[in-house]
Amino acid sequence: MFNIGDKVVYPMHGAGTIESIEDKDILGEKQSYYIIKMPGEVKVMVPTAKAEAIGVRDIIDKSTASNIFKVLTTDSTEMSMNWNKRYRDNMDKMKSGNAYEIADVVRNLSFKQKEKGLSTGEKKMLLNAKQILVSELALAENGNKDEVESLVDDTINKSFVEYTKMNLTENASDTVDGNVVKKFIPFTGTEEA
Question: What is the pTM of this model?
Fold first, then answer.
């Protein structure tokens, strides 16, 4: 059970602070609700009895927040080439409410956007995932939302540049001898008849 003033994450919505706990009569059913103040002056009501099942959890601590930035500095993980599969996989990560999974979505889609661009659906997903991640990091670090968002963007940009250079160097070394096939099929200079 959470208390007034607790900082929590509501999956697919982001992080906020429990402003009050109120009993409400909705459709003839009286229940107790957490009233969570989200970024942008949005308030969300979550039934206290279902909060855990829905995935409401405490925000990450400062140590975990620094580990989230480490996720943003790594190379992107492999994603499906199939747009629908990739979208579903990323949506599952976001629904999990796990900060590491959401950071993975933000980094992967940001890299993909820089490489080839994103579909409209994936652009919306990236914006939503980034908003969720930034809202939690800002509360965890007691920071300003705009400053945290700028830090996330800078971290991803530096990481993208680093891994793009690294991948270009690896691809160039594969073709140094002018014959990529030799890398996979050793050439001995003799052929059997």
Answer: 0.81
